Amino acid sequence: MPIKLNPPWIGIAVPTFLIGFIGYSSHYFILSNFASKGQQWSFQFTLIMTWISYIMAIYTKPGNPPDEFTPGPRQWKNFCKKCKNFKPERTHHCKSCKQCVLVMDHHCPWTMNCVGYQNFPHFMRFLIWVIITTLFLEYLLLKRIIMLWQSRHSRIFVYKSELCLLTVNAPLNAFIWLTISLLFARCIVNQGLSGMTQIESWEQERIENLFYRKRLIPQLIENLREVFPEGSPMDVEGATELLVNRDVQLIDMVNFPYDRGFIKNLRFFMGPFYTWLIPWSVPTESGFTFQLNDLAMYDSSSPLEDRLMALPWPPDRGFLKLDVETNCSSSNLTVGNTRGETVLKKRLTEFQTDLGRVQWENEWGETLSDFGVDIEAEN
């Protein structure tokens, strides 16, 4: 679960203290006693790169949508109630930064900044340099521990300060390496393998929850008629089959349209591969227009499942207009006959928004608000 700090500046103070304390105390009280000049210079280089990437992650703005942005014809019309402006796809309003953030991943308490499209590479470089620095330092610390253990019966002189700092820094440094490595792995899985931000990954879990509760399919059919009114003839047979078919899978009808493969996903988030380790490099695209994968291309002659994959993200638009149950006979969608033609009708029910999007928690106990999103600005 995301951490909330009060006062917020603690989020900067803690990493700053840890980087400074572990890095410089290890160098001057431990490494200087046995490491070669090359090893010491290499360690200082990685430590400096950690500082630079951390500063860049703190001060680089995450990216904001242009004024008076107008959504495309086949996009959700998401209006920010705080900024009084339409939001591009994948954009959310941060309750801490008090602004809309392009391709918002989360609000990071350890940088007091949102992680968005323009500063995501800085955030990733910070993680990379922390992993490299702590791994290299752990190797040197363990090497020193082994040296001291092997010479424990000799009359070698060892400073008490070195022994104390070895006892503290070695496990603390290993813990930091482990936690940052797990966070880095999560980013690689989300952004690289799936093309998703953390918020979109959370949204995917919510969509899966709706699907297994049998509340998703009728809403997708209704949204398809709204987004593609000119090319979405009511496929009664296909809709009925989807509603009653127990073998249908979520992957058969829901597509994350921004996933274009591992390499293209990383290039979108990080920029050209040859710039990934350059401290000042940023992505090259706008952050408010996106190339979609092939499954997101709409063809009115395709089966209903394929047409549902062309819906913008999230496919349920983030709330339900239909109070649906488990099958066609008990849901808001019913089969009727009008002038000799079979049609699929929506039963009249009281409009009910899906409060679950605001209140729903994933298996980690995370809500949309935990990622820093201002839920009052969401529509």
The major sheet is characterized as: 2 strands, antiparallel
Helicity, as a percent range: 40-55%
Radius of gyration, in Å, reads 26 Å
Net shape: elongated
Please report the total strand number as a whole number.
8
Low-confidence stretches: 322-355
Number of domains: 2
Structural class: mainly alpha
Number of helical segments? 10
- Reading the helices and strands in chain order gives HHEEEEEEHHHHHHHEEH
* Mean pLDDT metric: 86
Question: What's the structural blueprint in terms of helices and strands?
Answer:
Layout: H1 10-29, H2 37-59, E1 78-80, E2 85-87, E3 92-94, E4 99-101, E5 106-108, E6 113-115, H3 120-150, H4 160-194, H5 198-212, H6 217-227, H7 236-244, H8 262-270, H9 304-308, E7 333-338, E8 341-346, H10 356-359
Helix pairs in contact: 1-4, 2-3, 3-4, 4-8
Kindly describe this structure.
By secondary structure, the protein is mainly α. The chain folds into two domains: 10-62 and 114-194, no CATH class; 200-357, no CATH class. The chain has helices at 10-29, 37-59, 120-150, 160-194, 198-212, 217-227, 236-244, 262-270, 304-308, 356-359, and strands spanning 78-80, 85-87, 92-94, 99-101, 106-108, 113-115, 333-338, 341-346. The strands form four sheets. Strands 1-2 form a two-stranded antiparallel ribbon. It has a two-stranded antiparallel ribbon with strand order 3-4. Strands 5-6 form a two-stranded antiparallel ribbon. A hairpin with a 4-residue loop joins strand 1 (78-80) and strand 2. Helix 1 crosses helix 4. The radius of gyration is 26 Å and the shape is elongated. The two termini are 24 Å apart.
